[in-house]
Write a structure and sequence with these properties.
Structural class of chain A: alpha/beta
Number of strands of chain A: 7
Number of helices of chain B: 4
CATH architecture of chain A: Alpha-Beta Complex
Number of strands of chain B: 0
CATH superfamily of chain A: Spore Coat Polysaccharide Biosynthesis Protein SpsA, Chain A
Largest sheet of chain A: 7 strands, mixed
Strand content of chain B: under 5%
Radius of gyration of chain A: 17 Å
Radius of gyration of chain B: 32 Å
CATH topology of chain A: Spore Coat Polysaccharide Biosynthesis Protein SpsA, Chain A
Oligomer: heterodimer
Largest interface: A-B, 16 and 9 residues
Structural class of chain B: mainly alpha
CATH class of chain A: Alpha Beta
Shape of chain B: rod-shaped
Chain lengths: 249, 140
């Protein structure tokens, strides 16, 4: 059965973010009343899922147990693919991203300028990000890695503020890494020749929840992510020219 | 130096290796291990039996690989066995983790679908209930 194409889905991965999720939903709904909102509740223990459902403004998927950010976001892509959405936007539920800036990310995808748009906190002179030094060094290393591996300059690999068109979200519905997935996804998409661009977005202090990268896990995180990035680049392409042409026909 | 009676150790080696093989086979029979995951265990159990029966075997290996102290070849074989089996475990665990993730995602998606269907059915029912009395009054 061919479902009629729907336009835009905002995917909010949520894990124990009861402090911020309700306000965020109302804000999104007020600003973008025509778009659909999907909350993927990654088995929160603080009732975030019920709170989101209570607003009556969103569709909620409750995962049976905690999958981590990768598996959680991927569930959103699967839903978007099954429902035939044209654009999916990933938006973190902890209040780090600004609701007004969603348009900035959607616009290039809508106009067909890119398959993927990443909201970057660095891509501008007015950069106001003051993260810890170690974190900034890590991010610089990722930038270097992606330049070497896929010849593309991406400044903010850890950003979870991204927009995808239907082709990209369909691809990611079947191929999404787990365990600190964001940098690896950039390589995976670059390797499979998806057109990526970055737009500058402001990053706010998170209002609820905790970072998925605690500082004690720093070394593990860096090594794991760098290994994943290299491996994603070394693996053969999943989207080949043949099936790409086939798709276009 | 006292001469060590090495026939004792050979008997012990053969019996433990044989018992080891029997244990693996027993676990398969009881369905505690799946056949496909037992192949490496059986393979190495047989290797152990071969080397405990054929004692010069280790000497040959040691000489071939260039190990001055032949019993060390035994550790080499053992370590290789353990490593291979552990790597196999990592592969199996990774595969399981992946399938597990897909299952959880499907459950989440299906739960939503069920909920939406239930809602639809409930609404239809309500509509029916509302329209029923009026139909009755029409027939009268």
């Amino acid at each position: 059965m061919q479902k009629s194409p729907k336009r835009i889905l905002i995917i909010i991965p949520v894990y124990n973010e009861s402090a911020s999720v309700v306000r965020l939903i109302y804000e999104l709904d007020r600003m973008y009343p025509k778009w659909d909102i999907l909350v993927v509740n990654d088995a929160s223990q603080d009732g975030s899922g019920e709170l989101a459902e209570g607003t009556g403004k969103v569709t909620v998927i409750n995962l049976p147990f905690n999958l981590g950010i990768g598996g959680c976001v991927q569930t959103g892509f699967k839903y978007a693919r099954n429902q035939g959405y044209e654009i999916a936007l990933q938006f973190d539920g902890d209040g780090q991203h600004r609701v007004e800036e969603i348009r900035k990310l959607i616009k290039p995808v809508r106009e067909g300028l890119a398959d993927v748009v990443i909201g970057s906190r660095f891509n501008s002179k007015e950069n106001n990000y003051e993260g810890q030094l170690l974190r900034r060094i890590g991010i610089k290393i990722f930038e270097f890695f992606s330049y070497i591996l896929i010849r593309q300059k991406i400044t903010d690999h850890t950003s979870g503020f991204r927009a995808y068109n239907n082709r990209a979200l369909t691809f990611l519905a079947d191929h999404y890494p787990t365990d600190f997935p964001e940098p690896e996804v950039v390589i995976l998409l670059g390797k499979n020749r998806f057109r990526m661009i970055e737009v500058f977005t402001q990053m706010l202090k998170r209002q609820g929840g905790v970072s998925s990268i605690p500082i004690t896990k720093g070394p593990y995180y860096m090594i794991k992510v760098m290994l994943s990035m290299v491996m994603a680049a070394v693996r053969s392409r999943i989207v080949t020219d043949e099936n790409l042409n086939h798709e276009k026909r | 130096m006292k001469n060590v009676d090495s026939s004792n150790i050979q008997i012990i080696a053969i019996t433990t290796s044989a018992l080891f093989l029997l244990l693996i086979l027993y676990l398969i029979k009881k369905k505690r291990i799946k056949e496909e995951y037992s192949l490496l265990w059986i393979f190495f159990a047989v290797v152990f039996i071969v080397f405990s029966v054929w004692r010069q075997g280790l000497d040959y290996i040691a000489e071939f690989v260039g190990i001055a102290y032949p019993p060390a070849a035994l550790f080499l074989v053992l370590l290789m066995a353990v490593f291979l089996i552990l790597i196999e475990f990592s592969i199996i665990i990774s595969k399981l983790a992946d399938k597990n993730k897909v299952l959880a995602q499907e459950i989440g998606l299906l739960r939503l679908e069920i909920k939406q269907l239930e809602e639809k059915v409930r609404k239809k029912k309500e509509k029916k209930d509302d329209s029923l009395p009026s139909q009755e009054s029409n027939s009268e």
